[in-house]
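Hey, quick one: can you model this chain's 3D structure?
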Amino acid sequence: MLNIALLIKKYSVPFLFGLIGFLLLLTGLMKNQSLEFIFAAIVILLSAGVSALNVSGKISPSLTRIIGFVSLGVAIIVLFFTFGSVSETVEHQKDYKACKGLSIRNLKDAQTAQKAYLVKNKVYAPDWNTLVKFIKEDSIAILDAEGSVPSRKITEKERDYLVKFNLYKKGQAIDNKMNEMDAYYLSKSPICPFELTTFRRDTVNVSFIETTFTKNRSYMKERFDNGYGEFVAEALKFIPFTEKKDSWKIDTATVVIGSDTLSTVLIKGTLPLTAIKDAPKKETMFFGKLDNNDLSGSWEVQ
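Sure thing. Here's the predicted structure for all 302 residues.
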């Protein structure tokens, strides 16, 4: 019993280091860790083996010390490179997150601009110059609304006035409450009721870039909160972290679905950074399709 206790005490340190080295090596191989990490695990395993040989009397204490000092030196060097590798990995992950976040933001903005361009021109912008010019110089129509529709039926006098707009017929029964169209015409009439004196439903043209981006407080707050800076229309075409060397590619087409002819668009590009440092496959991001009018983005369906 004493011999077993002595053996446990004698080999506990080599066993502990051997277990740590084995677990680190297993983790490194299964989690695709760096070569420095795997090498450090091997050094720990070898040190555990030398320690076991020493306590068993197979090698002399002097040789053990020499091997120990050499292993310590190697371990320090490996740890230095491992620390540098970890720092680079952390910085890479930070850059990747920023790159993907800004890419999504820019693609969403291009998506919004293409939708507005389609409404006004019945087709999608075929290239970046056309889209950027639209964003910076064009306007869009928005509803300028004020007041609400009274919750009552129209009077006979109001009905007779609305006949000339083909909303009612002379003598028609008044069964339903006043609707938006009734309120609109009555608000502009000589017999405008008191409840509609402030009623307004007009369409006005406003600057697209100001309304959607540069003077949209919630949008600009989101940009600054995420560190994206000010909105610059010309910057939308460039894939982030490529130093303006790579651009998102725009493709447009026309497809016939049933009896409808539809304009379609696809904006696509590849991120310069990978989710895992030194991973071989890079990530492709896009929105839209060429064979149908689906404008959903790759970040929405993951």
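One thing worth noting: Residues 191 and 295 are 47 Å apart (CA to CA).
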